[in-house]
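Thread: "does anyone have the structure for this chain?"

Original post by V.I.:
We have the sequence but no experimental structure in hand. Need at least a predicted one for the grant figures.
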Amino acid sequence: EDFRAIAYWGSRMFADALMVAIPAIASILLVNLSFGVVSRSAPQLNVFGVGFPVTLTLGFVIIIFAVANLLPQMQHLIHGALDSVSLLGKGGQ
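Reply from O.Q.:
Generated one for you, tokens below.
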């Protein structure tokens, strides 16, 4: 039973981390796809020289906007994690 609880907590942490990271991952994927289309349509342009700084800047901008929207969800996740840790400290009672 204890191993099932640990496995459940681990899978829950992974799922919650994935939910937090998906907006940034999806937007960076779209930026990289658009750079791929540009480099395919205009091969004389050096997209790789511009692509990395633009991707980095867009990643920071997306994180700034996402943090404001993720704050209530993060509070809920942290509260749940602290409840789980306190339950673990009490011996699962």
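V.I.: this helps a lot. The CA atoms of residues 39 and 45 lie 7 Å apart.
O.Q.: and The chain has one domain: 2-89.
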